[in-house]
Amino acid sequence: MKLTLYRKAGCPWSAAVMGFLNELNIPYETKNVTSNPVYAEELKAASGQCISPSLDIDGTMLADASVEDVAKVLEQRGLII
């Protein structure tokens, strides 16, 4: 499973999603759309917007994702109970 978190610097919602994934020891790649315009364009192409946090889980994009959104998808995939 591949997770990519698109985030903006200083975004508290991104920090919450990162903390949640770290707590579960789920590896993910972080792409900071604030400091890298290429990542911002990549996110916009994938989701139609540039909202943080957005999480790509194996090609499924969760735009403007909350911890609850992430937990729901991970539970559906049998990764958490």
Describe the structure.
With 81 residues, the chain is an alpha+beta fold. It has a single domain, classed as Glutaredoxin. It has 3 helices and 4 strands. A 4-stranded mixed beta sheet has the order 2-1-3-4, covered by helices on one side. Strand 3 and strand 4 form a beta hairpin. The chain starts with a strand and ends in a 5-residue tail after the last helix.
How large is the radius of gyration?
Answer: 12 Å
- Find the count of extended strands (DSSP E, 2+ residues): 4
Q: What structural class do you assign from the helix and strand content?
A: alpha+beta
Instruction: Tell me the CATH architecture.
Output: 3-Layer(aba) Sandwich
The CATH superfamily name is Glutaredoxin
What order do the helices and strands follow? EHEHEEH
Percentage of residues in strands: 15-25%
Q: Describe the largest sheet.
A: 4 strands, mixed
* Largest sheet, spatial ordering of strands: 2-1-3-4
Helical region count?
Answer: 3
Task: Tell me the name of the CATH class.
Answer: Alpha Beta
- Runs in which pLDDT lies below 50 for 5 or more consecutive residues are none
- How far the N terminus sits from the C terminus, by CA atoms, comes to 17 Å
Helix content: 40-55%
**CATH topology category name:** Glutaredoxin
Mean pLDDT: 94
Number of self-contained structural domains: 1
Can you tell me the overall shape? globular
